[in-house]
Amino acid sequence: MAQRDPLKKFLVELFGPAPGTRNGRTGQPTPEPAVGTYRTFAPVAVAAAALAFYAPQLADTAITDSVDQAGQFITTVHGYRWPLGALAAGWSVLDIVRWRGHRQRLALEAQLRQTTRHLPVKVTVAFPPGIGALRSAKIRLPRGAIIRPKEMDEFTTAVRGAAARTGTHTYTVRHHAHRDLILITRTPIEPDTRSPRHKALQTALSAGTIFKEPNVTVHSCDEDGIETGYKITFTPSLNSGARGFQAKVDEALAALAGDHESGRTWATAWTPAEGYLMMYLRAPLPTRVDHPLALVDENLRHLPYATGAANLSLYWDVSTKSNKPHCLIVGPTGGGKTSVIRTLLTEASRRGIPFLGVDPKMIELDGLEGYPGCAAIVYDAVRSAMLVRALHAEMMARNHYVHVKKIEPSQLPLLIAVLDEFFILSGKWQRLAKDEDEEIRAQVKQLDPLGAWADLAVLARSAGIRLLLGVQRPDASLFGSSSGNARDNFGTRISLGNLSQDGALMMWGDAHVGREVDTSIPGRGVVTALDGSPVDAQMWWTPNVDPHPNKWNQLSDEEKAIVHGLAPIESPTFEFFSTELRKFVEAERALAKRAREFGDAPEPSVLTDFSTDHDTVDDEVADAIPASAVTEGMVILLDDDNGHPVPVTVDTVAVVRDKDTGDVLETVMSINAGERVKTTVHFDATEVVMLPEPDTVLTA
User: Of 180, 202, 299, 536, whose Cβ has the fewest other Cβ atoms within 10 Å?
Assistant: First the structure.
């Protein structure tokens, strides 16, 4: 093994290999390098300067005549010692600079050969080359040299890694293939003056894969220079147009941005077609909004009920031109559904719009009977079916009136019909259709309330009848299989509490909307915005308007002032176009009056004189859900051989759906009827089942 010679290695590195040197391994001549041999002349100048400075000492040593002549020459040179010293110093500095440039040229040649396997024709660096880092360079390649993008990236990385050591500059490497040239330039790095929030957003987006080529810029600042808005640009993709993707990105961006110094929250506005989104600040939603006494919206066909971001009032448009004529409210017991209904109906009353309703649980519309503008509140299942059929007759009479009188439907007076807890009501109708009393079965079959309801959901808009539906979950079966696009007519939607994934998909068409509502704040939910999109909102709080002492005495002075302030000066008038609805309302009012006078009405609590423990009575009406929503292991109520409801446990559930539309056709349940005994029960698409556990009455 040959020993290493440090002196030889230094000399070869300093002056380069001798021309024609052969490769030690292959024996082939070494290719002519682009960087020539380094030549230095500084030692000659240094030796001449040293001779000039030490000339007197050398002259004293001259002892012969022949040396005298040399001594005289040395003495003469001594007079030029300072110019020669300056020349030696300058030449040395120049050689040091040339040496530095030579080293940089050698490094660039080696990096190019290792990354691209090309031997450059010529390597030139700027003069002076820079002591700490490379300033610029030009590399001439062989004619027609091909460099692949990956190789170019490797070469760029090598240049930046070897040259950019100070951290104050960055290098740009450009390959001009048509000129067989590589140019390297150095530019100073601008000081990073971005805020920590700006850096966090840019770093996270650049490190992730959700956007291609993301860039975050500051869009706005407040008076103190604190950033209040950002513009994020990106390359448009299929994901950027999906609401589910946008919702996840919104949540991530808000978390990265953190809490703002102003206390406001972050929101986004997407423009995916143009490849950007805006982050901006909006005022946080209030935690409580009492029903305003002043008319928030002067349009008498707008019924406001909630406050959204930036104190925006949200309303239900009941006008003829509305594309969201009917309202759907989804929410569990205690979620604020009752207050929203009271808000909408009191707003309707003060704007001259009458209403009537059905309350199978006898608590949701408690106190509205007798309120200005209220035609009737029905609690009994049979009379509820009669009301729905009378509403159907009213709708047909109104359409006939428009046809005969040749008037515009907008000239018809508005009427709001409220059906709360629709599943319970539907369950009662289905039980009545199987009742032991043949007369009741025949009456319910003749009334066909579910069929009349399906017609109302589709056709009531043009007749000036507006529907307000309250349910606990937005199942498609609540509209009936023959309702067609009934649910689409319920364009104004309100969801309270957190929805399930299926519920969010049915309610909002997006499995992510309405699933993360802050339920610790009463009245918080998701509603339909003015443009039809779902937005977070705080529902207005409307106290119970029941004047009964047991209810009225529970209100504070502020709540009593709200009730008094909301009462209209003049009660809305009722205009009936059908004798069926007029006679029904007259009969219902007579029954209510009789109940108040004699106290023999079985349902309405507000019309009778109950004892002081009336407010502590639990709601004895159990909830109902669609049969298709039952899951294995759930306990439901089924009638025994004597027609009495008994709780049973569901063993298995099979839901038969249409292959094309996915609609429920039938639900088959296997019931545990005893040891090794199972019973199979069939339910059609619209049937509901009762639950044995009633809801707990929650007071506001």
Answer: 299
